[in-house]
């Protein structure tokens, strides 16, 4: 039975997840496969490259660097998180992404994007670190309104969380029947419509299927939570979630805030690590 790891998104809440997964790596706990959405993909790639601490390190380092993110980047490039600097310069020059370790690790790594022309999820396996791989990860994490549509392999892509926020059902369908699912919202959370939906609808009106997916996102997300709860009850997955609301917004430029959120994740990771080992039968 293959052990899987499912990482939902949540923008900067993903640093909480990185705290949990860094603890897993420190304890030599490795899944057979990982599927990540948005921040779950952007930070989860460091699991395949086996780089403990990388996600919190570069986010803190560049938190206030205008080259990395900010309104100037949005106005000049169309992306709040600068595409070239964040996804190509940083991993090649400033905080080196270990391409060789990524390539040599047999762990399957899949990112989820949303095709803006169909409104459907795209599940992209990534086995070799290269320019296109970085672009697939960027596409998965490209939030509507603050990101340009990413064009890859004949598709037009944005945030994977719009079409499939918690892809447990998909992962099970391809053979991962024993999954740790890391969520970034506390138990009892119910998703409602984003207050910026009217702006998104206007900005993305040329992609009606994507707008429809955005409109349906709360229903989709809440249904997926119900699916996860049933899988948890049946013993098919182990769910790790924060005890309470994670104290950070979608965007943050405060290194101390980032570190606090990461440390909260580490605390939960330490609390769950023996349970994860037992679940994975390690």
Describe this structure in words.
This protein is α/β, with parallel strands linked by helices. Strands 1, 2, 3, 4, 5, 6, 7 and 8 form an 8-stranded mixed β-sheet that branches. It has 11 helices and 8 strands.
The number of distinct β-strands equals 8
Low-confidence stretches: none
Return the string of H and E elements.
EHEHHHHHEEHEEHEHHEH
The largest β sheet comes out as: 8 strands, mixed
What structural class is derived from the secondary structure elements? alpha/beta
- Approximate shape: globular
Query: Strand-residue fraction?
Result: 5-15%
Oligomer status: single chain
Helices, by number, come to 11
Q: What does the radius of gyration come to?
A: 17 Å
Q: Can you give the mean pLDDT? A: 97
Fraction of residues in helix: 40-55%
* N- and C-termini, Cα separation: 13 Å
């Amino acid at each position: 039975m293959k052990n899987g790891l499912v990482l939902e998104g949540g923008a900067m809440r993903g640093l909480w997840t990185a705290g949990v997964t860094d603890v897993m790596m420190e304890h030599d706990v490795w899944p057979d496969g990982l599927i990540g959405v948005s921040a779950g993909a952007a930070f989860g790639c460091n699991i395949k490259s086996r780089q403990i601490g990388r996600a919190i390190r570069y986010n803190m380092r560049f938190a206030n660097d205008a080259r990395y993110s900010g309104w100037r980047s949005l106005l000049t490039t169309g992306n709040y998180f600068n595409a070239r600097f964040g996804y190509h310069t940083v991993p090649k020059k400033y905080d080196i992404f270990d391409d060789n370790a990524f390539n040599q690790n047999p762990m399957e790594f899949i990112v989820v994007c949303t095709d803006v022309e169909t409104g459907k999820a795209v599940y992209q396996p990534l086995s070799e670190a290269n320019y296109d791989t970085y672009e697939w990860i960027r596409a998965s994490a490209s939030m509507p309104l603050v990101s340009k549509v990413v064009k890859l392999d004949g598709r037009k892509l944005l945030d994977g969380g719009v079409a499939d926020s918690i892809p447990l059902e998909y992962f099970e369908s391809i053979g991962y029947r024993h999954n740790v699912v890391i969520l970034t919202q506390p138990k009892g959370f119910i998703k409602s419509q984003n207050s910026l939906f009217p702006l998104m609808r206007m900005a993305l009106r040329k992609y009606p299927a994507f707008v429809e997916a955005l409109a349906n996102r709360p229903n989709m997300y809440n249904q997926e939570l119900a699916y996860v709860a049933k899988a948890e009850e049946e013993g098919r997955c182990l769910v790790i979630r924060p005890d309470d609301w994670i104290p950070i917004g979608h965007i943050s430029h405060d290194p101390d805030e980032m570190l606090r959120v990461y440390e909260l994740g580490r605390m939960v990771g330490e609390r769950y690590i023996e349970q994860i080992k037992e679940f994975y039968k390690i």
